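Posting this for the archive.
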Amino acid sequence: MATFPSKTDPAPMPRLSREPPAPSPVPGTTAPSTRSTRHPIAEPVTTERDLWRIWERRRLPVQLSTRDGRALRVLFPGVPNTGAGPDFTGAHIALDQQLPIRGDVELHLHATSWEGHGHHRDQHYDGVVLHVVLLDDGGPTRTSGGKAVPLLA
């Protein structure tokens, strides 16, 4: 079982399983903010492919929230993309009880991988509506046009 590391937070976050938190799969990593991003999941996650499989199979709780605290509902995870570009296309999500939006989803082990992979300069990623990460290490998620992309950790 993998977990999302965090600092102590008095307000508990929704969890991906009912199991107690376990140590982080990446020793020494912590979330940069005081808001908890700890979400234990029922399957081991050590690679991006593991995270990809969890997203594809919808092994997520009903209640999720983004890094900035918005409620998130995943209505459809999208279609897997094995070619260049975002990991999933045509996903349907809803933020804060608003009307659903359709777009792409990109997955990484670390939030900083968005810029590390150059997605912030690549127009192929301008349709991303959600960045899903295992570890929120504080990296920004913005499109090549400067639009902020919600992050789920």
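Confidence is low (pLDDT under 50) at residues 1-38. The first strand starts at residue 64 and ends at 65.
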